[in-house]
Design goal:
238 residues, alpha+beta, three-stranded antiparallel beta sheet
Length: 238
């Protein structure tokens, strides 16, 4: 009896081992892979711009002299198009001299749009700021507060509480040169660079007024413009 039980148990074990071997060799499920996709990379673009021109000094000016033009060339050196461009002019030196330097030409070249005259209609910038009369002076361009507002004109929270270096109130820190306001057009201010025709240009010509007077002999004034490029003027207006 015991011997028979051993034989039967051994037979069952042998059958089980054979079945296991058959299953391992012929009954496995099919599979493939794994296959992995390449990485989906997300890199932020860049918005950078660079002035392409060097500063200029005009010396020994006399009343009545016309000088310039001065070209300020800006290139989009980043990978994202600049929709709006803002510029804020700052003066250093004699305010009295700045008020006798007339801006006789103030043009802008907008890539894809062409040249635009800021002193002629419909821009007529000279009629929109300071005393509302021509000629537009360098001092008026730097102060750039709207006509009819009076002085001082400060409204907290509305952008009107900004004071320039001469103590005058301005409508904004910066005036848009394209993308909104008096210079609005339907394209980008500066697209990413592919040729010089896509550079933005601001061009000035000046005249030293004949009414300057002897008190301005030896006086000096200089200006700088800080440009700000923006992807979207609606949410980023100063």
């Amino acid at each position: 009896m015991k011997k028979g039980n051993v034989t039967i148990l051994a037979s069952i074990l042998a059958i089980a081992l054979v079945a296991a071997g058959v299953g391992a060799g012929t009954m496995a499920w099919f599979s493939a892979g794994p296959e992995t996709t390449g990485p989906y990379v997300m890199n932020a673009g860049t918005m950078t711009m660079a002035i392409q021109t060097t500063p200029v000094t005009f010396s020994n000016l006399a009343p009545g002299d016309v000088f310039g033009p001065v070209d300020i060339v800006i290139r989009n050196t980043g990978s994202i198009d600049i929709w709006s461009l803002a510029g804020s002019m700052t003066l250093s030196g004699s305010g009295a001299l700045a008020d006798k330097i007339e801006i006789t030409q103030w043009d802008e070249y907008l890539p894809g749009y062409g040249w635009q005259d800021n002193l002629a209609d419909p821009q007529h910038f000279a009629l929109l700021v300071q005393d509302g009369n021509r000629p537009l002076t360098l001092l008026e361009a730097a102060q750039s507060y709207s006509t009819g507002r009076g002085e001082p004109y400060a409204v907290s929270g509305a952008g009107h509480d900004k004071v320039d270096q001469w103590g005058k109130y301005k409508m904004y820190y910066s005036d848009f040169v394209t993308g909104a306001g008096y210079d609005q057009h339907s394209g980008y201010a500066i697209k990413t660079y592919s040729s010089t025709s896509q550079d933005y240009i601001m061009r000035f010509t000046f005249k030293f007024s004949e009414t300057a007077g002897n008190g301005l002999q030896g006086a000096s004034v200089s200006f700088t413009i800080s440009f700000l490029g923006m992807q979207d003027y609606v949410s980023q207006r100063p």
